Amino acid sequence: NAILFEEKSALTxxxxxxxxxxxxxxxxxxxxxxxxxxxxPGELIxxxxxxxxxxxxxxxxxxxxxVCAVRVDQMTSCGQLVPELQQxxxxxxxxxxxxxxxxxxxxxxxxxxxxxxxxxxxxxVDRNAAHSGSDSQINLMISRHDxxxxxxxxxxxxSRLLTRFQKEHLIFMEGKLISLLAKDNLKxxxxx
Length: 192
Fold this sequence. Notes:
This protein is α+β, with helices and mostly antiparallel strands. It contains 7 helices and 8 strands. The chain has helices spanning 49-52, 72-81, 83-107, 113-132, 144-151, 155-167, 183-190; strands at 3-5, 13-27, 33-39, 44-45, 58-71, 137-139, 171-174, 177-180.
């Protein structure tokens, strides 16, 4: 797993994910890792550093991943030369902000582990639909340990829930491939 940039390092560029998955991690006071986000193809990484001037988390590639870097020192000059580029970047930043808001709303107030997992699965499949071409299936490269960390669950709880969701025909799992078989039922579980 390659590190794209480290938490608290100076902003140099923002990145658009071209392929693969990136996990965004913050280090807790006790030195443990807390996963605060995931980025998929078509999404930006490091955009919040435009305000902070330092990266707010460490971005780590999961498996084979690629990005397109947009150097901050080139943004202004490119934007002046090609205004359409600046407008496209603004649109992408607005989309990212909206997606972050929707993602946050999907998890706020979720009391049960079942609700959290259902909201998570629906969210990542929807976020990847444009790239994968499927609105019901995802090849989930992130480990169960990382998913449990992100959702604030124990790994055993996550494994038990995934098994239960499969037995109840809500999902089908084959290796890293997860298919959502009953999206409406998952939406009810997620309170969406």
